[in-house]
Specification:
CATH architecture of chain B: 2-Layer Sandwich
Largest sheet of chain A: none
Radius of gyration of chain B: 18 Å
Shape of chain B: flat
Number of strands of chain A: 0
CATH superfamily of chain B: Dimeric alpha+beta barrel
Distance between the termini of chain A: 51 Å
Number of strands of chain B: 6
Number of helices of chain B: 3
Number of domains of chain A: 4
Distance between the termini of chain B: 24 Å
Structural class of chain B: alpha+beta
Helix content of chain B: 25-40%
CATH topology of chain B: Alpha-Beta Plaits
Number of helices of chain A: 21
Oligomer: heterodimer
Structural class of chain A: mainly alpha
Number of domains of chain B: 1
Chain lengths: 405, 123
Amino acid sequence: MRADPRIEGMLREHAPQVLASLVRRYGQFDACEDAVQEALLAAALQWAEEGVPDSPQSWLVTVASRRLVDEWRSESARRRREETAAALELPGRGQPSDQDDTLTLLFLCCHPALSVPSQLALTLRAVGGLTTAEIANAFLVPEATMAQRISRAKQRIKTAGIRFDLPPEPERADRLAVVLHVLYLVFNEGYTTSSGPALHRADLTAEAIRLTRLLHQLTPAEGEVAGLLALMLLTDARRTARTNPDGSLVPLAEQRRDLWDAAQISEGVALITHTLGTTPIGPYQLQAAIAATHDEAPSAEDTDWPQILALYETLERVSPGPVVTLNRAVALAMVNGPRAGLALLGTLDTDDHMARTHRLDAVRGHLFELAGDTAAARHCYQRAARTTASVPEQRYLALRAARLG
Amino acid sequence: MKYMIMMFGDQATIVEVKSPEWIRNMHALMTKIDDELREAGELVEGHRLADPSQARTIRLRDGIPVATDGPFAESKESLAGYWIVDVSEERAIEIASRCVAGTGEPVEVREVMDAPPEHLSDL
């Protein structure tokens, strides 16, 4: 639909600022959001034909405003009076910068009153400037489903009376954590090539990195924002090496490291190195430091496992959880031997959630294999293969088990 | 995550023993839940299936696939319809529980295999 990538990039860059300026002027986030989507579509068609206007942003604001006014004119007089009243209730502060507006929009789309799927969808549409069809493709659901989800999210913003304002200072840290979590989920959705069109999912990865980079520019002093951006860059750098051409998974130790994206690794390493120690430590920074340690090893054998173990120990103190313990068990096994790792995994057997996922069995199978207990390893891999809901992972685990047969 | 919510039931028995009121209520409940799932942006797709007496089963016979009348399994309870929903497991179970509470018929909830691999390759 939007064919020209240069125009597409420009539109998506301007989208949040155009929306913010409409919301400031007219209120009514939901109607403004629709009008901006229409303006983006109109721009994609018209600019491709007639060239990009001198001031793309004012062009978009003008066209979106016209759509909005047309829409209101076509509604009843009673409804129109309500809209006017709503517009008058806007906060009467001075013209804020585009930067503040984009940040406010991110906080609005990631409002805790919205469900997680709504937060993801709305962020991609209102801040990312993606169309509903593109978002639906990325999440492998019909367009009608995604349209409904977005419309519900906007309705919720309206009924909950959520205002277009930056969250007050005491709430800022918690609200920022929600924004980071949403961006992290978008990234993961894209990174983990699953069934369905891999191309669309890769687009989500790029989009998550773009939005996190934008957030990092807006909040350079926030260590966890920098940490998340570094984590994404350092993880995404290995994407090409993670799967074989036939779609099967390649474990980290067997990946061709010459396929890793060196430029992205050096950017990620520089970012996390610069950040660590200058702001309060947090889980994203620690995960980025772990990813950096992997990425900097010239070969799997050269991996600095004692360093990774130390980082997981810190991560477990800062943000404890069964998944962190699971990963620490792998690092522990690499430093003190597989039996030490297996002993630590034993502490997770009582965790209800962990016991129901395939992860525990998959890691246990790996450690049994390292310990030379092929019968136990095979049994664990088979159990993990039956529990996973991922096709490539099931294939990987089933092959792993069969190889030990 | 996506889940398939599978409604089971023996349609022949339903037609024979259930009251018109029960049938009306069951249809009303299914339509209501269907509308709600659609409206909430949770529904990926859903269908009712024709009666198993209308099924054809294809089997290999002497190395050649041959179609015969009737379902594969002579089970009293066969798949009557399904939804695929994009929700959490808790929510999928909640939807299924409403069906069971309303109809008394069993419902199975199964995850669709389009989950992402969970960092397994970072081992």
